[in-house]
Write a structure and sequence with these properties.
It contains eleven helices and eight strands. The protein is of the alpha+beta class and 294 residues long. It has a single domain, classed as Creatine Kinase, Chain A, domain 2, CATH 3.30.590. The protein has an eight-stranded antiparallel beta sheet with strand order 2-3-4-5-1-6-8-7, with helices on one face. β7 and β8 form a beta hairpin.
Length: 294
């Protein structure tokens, strides 16, 4: 199976944070696209749920980071597949039409199903992400405010432990990630607050990408998800990956560097034209050649 076939066979979910919309109205906006039934389940997160005709449940819940809990919502999708991207985009458009707004408080998180990944493949994923992290963060427009707390850069100590031990089991990977054994991390355990969060490997069987800013642009939501799926697919299909010679961000060559990275991820051709557009639009320099160092 090649990289794109692998990408399209992965599962994912996403969390979309918005202000300017109540949880009830967010649920109704979701229902307007997917159908099904809406119910207020209450609980600690004031959940409103939309159960689709296929039985999958979409949620609108509160999030303390969004300020006014009566006029904000975190939309949590069920487990989705590549074929669901068009529906997800329609949901995002419906939410925007219903008043949802993306502000500096909001973010998008992407979870990629990784229950069947081996420790070696997960280590590959971490190496790939770490090596290109500065470029990925720039492409995503991740703010300094987010990087200072909720979305820290990958811990260099973790990468050093990864390279020293070359973990072949999930237990060994766990020790490298936590710098100690923590087989059952709590939900808010502090290691989660990184751009690439591996905590959920031992909680929900997913890898979480926490680096994206909030957006009401359906194309951006899709591009962010496909980037995460492509990195995960590369980790699955690569024989090996290296974290050596970590890329520094050179503004004059950033657009070219991201273009080359996307080629390496097989994000080529007309199918991924809009994905490339969104992932290149925040970067400077030329996408066709690398500027010479001054």
């Amino acid at each position: 199976m090649n990289a794109i076939e692998t990408l399209k066979n992965l599962t994912y979910g996403t969390e979309l944070e918005y202000t300017g919309i109540t949880r009830q109205n967010a649920a109704l906006a979701i229902q307007s696209v997917i159908g099904g039934t809406v119910a207020s389940n209450g609980g600690a997160y004031g959940e409103w749920a939309v159960t689709a005709p296929d039985g999958r449940k979409w949620k609108a819940v509160s999030d303390g980071s969004l300020g006014d809990s009566n006029n904000s919502a975190e939309v949590v999708t069920p487990i989705l597949r590549y074929a669901d991207l068009d529906t997800l985009q329609e949901v995002v458009r419906a939410l925007r039409k219903a008043g949802a707004k993306a502000t500096s408080e909001t973010s998008q998180h992407v979870h990629v199903g990784a229950a069947h990944f081996t420790a070696k493949q997960l280590a590959n994923l971490a190496r790939i992400f770490y090596k290109q992290e500065e470029l990925i963060l720039a492409a995503a427009g991740t703010t300094a405010q987010r990087l200072s707390h909720y979305t820290k850069r990958t811990d260099a100590g973790f990468i050093a432990r990864l390279e020293a031990t070359k973990p072949m089991t999930l237990e060994a990977l766990n020790r490298a990630w936590f710098n100690g054994h923590n087989p059952h991390p709590e939900h808010y355990e502090s290691h989660r607050y990184h751009a690439l969060n591996l905590n959920n490997i031992w909680r929900t069987g997913t890898v979480e990408f926490r680096l994206f800013e909030g957006t009401t642009h359906a194309g951006e939501v899709k591009a962010n998800i496909i980037l995460c799926l492509a990195i995960a697919a590369k980790a699955l299909t690569a024989r090996a990956a290296s974290a050596k010679n970590r890329r520094t961000l050179i503004p004059s060559a950033a657009k070219y560097g991201m273009r080359v990275f996307m080629i390496n991820l097989a994000l080529i051709g007309d199918e991924f034209k809009n994905v490339r557009k969104h992932l290149l639009k925040r970067l400077t320099g030329s996408s066709t050649y690398a500027a010479r160092a001054a």
